Amino acid sequence: MTPRAHMPPAKRAPLIRLLVLLGMALPVVAALAWLSAASPPAAELPARHFNTDNLARLATLKKNPVTFAVFGDSRDHSGAFPVLLKAVRREAEMDFAIHLGDLVSTGKLAEYAAFFQEIQTLADLPVLAVVGNHELGGDGPHLFREIFGPTYYSFRLADTAFIMLNNAAKEGITESEWNWLREELEKARSAARRLVFLHVPLYDPRPDREKPHAMPAPAARRLLALFKEHQVNHVFAGHIHGYFTGDWDGLPYTISGGAGTRLHGRDPQHYFHHYLKVRLDLDRLTVEVKPLPAVGKERP
């Protein structure tokens, strides 16, 4: 039998301390590596806190009336989105633009980079974005927050309260967002108008759909009751790839999901690429749909 080497206790103690320190350090190193992978360096991001920066630009806008563009669902486009951006840019009175979500397909950094390359067309206009369900893919809400800022927020302009919601997840809005929304709507009572922008519509206006492309019914009823209680004037949504307008139990809405992605149908009354031109006057709100010329081949 080969005798085992014996290490004196005086030499063994430093080795034990070293092993303990290594054992404590390894989880920290692993966590730092994960955070590094999950959070790209600022230099790699196509933008940082984009919504926040554009809200600062809007704060300097002191005019009435105010005109802005609204559009949603530009992901995976076949050429229509650049056409839309150029049309918006040619509008003589346009002050800013709001994207209703689904800017990208799977939430990847490269897709965001491509999106920001495209919207350089509107570099002279402040652009704000709402989070869509396709932004929840890939690195998900974390990457959206890194690039755009908070996923729900509000601002005032032309005596109008703009409330931008995150209802893109399957369950709708979280309880913390709900509490924030109640407070914002209370504060907005002093405004002349209250406008809400979100990605997923409360209800699908298309009849007889087995699976509505909308919020879960209980969440929609709860939100609708809150909007009516606080006299919201208009709700703008995307998610359905087309154009629909009407009212939900007396609350006016417009669905604008035709910024470039594949349309959900063939009915020419509803399924065409477009943007909205919204005008806020002293005493009224007007919403005009602006169809785009056909681009490429579309199929539902």
What is the CATH class name? Alpha Beta
Strand content: 15-25%
Which strand order spans the largest sheet, edge to edge or round the barrel? 4-5-6-7-9-8
The CATH topology is Purple Acid Phosphatase, chain A, domain 2
Helix content: 25-40%
Average of pLDDT:
88
Please work out how many helical segments DSSP would assign.
Answer: 7
Any guess at the CATH architecture? 4-Layer Sandwich
Overall 3D form: globular
Helical/strand content category: alpha/beta
N-end to C-end Cα span:
80 Å
**Any idea how many domains?**
1
The main sheet comes to:
6 strands, mixed
Low-confidence stretches: 1-5, 28-38
Helix-strand string: HHEHEHEHEEHEHEEEEE
The CATH superfamily is identified as Metallo-dependent phosphatases
Q: Could you walk me through the main structural features you see in this protein, from its secondary elements to its overall organization?
A:
The chain is α/β, with parallel strands linked by helices and 300 residues long. It has a single domain, classed as 4-Layer Sandwich (Purple Acid Phosphatase, chain A, domain 2). 32% of the residues lie in helices and 19% in strands. The chain has seven helices and eleven strands. It has helices at residues 9-38, 50-58, 80-90, 109-118, 140-148, 175-187, 217-229; strands at residues 66-71, 96-99, 127-129, 153-157, 160-164, 193-197, 234-237, 243-248, 251-256, 274-280, 285-291. The strands form two sheets. Strands 4-5-6-7-9-8 form a six-stranded mixed beta sheet. A five-stranded mixed beta sheet has the order 3-2-1-10-11. Strand 2, helix 4 (109-118) and strand 3 (127-129) form a beta-alpha-beta unit. The longest helix has 30 residues, at 9-38. It starts with 8 loop residues before the first helix and ends in a 9-residue tail after the last strand. The model is unreliable at 1-5 and 28-38 (pLDDT under 50).
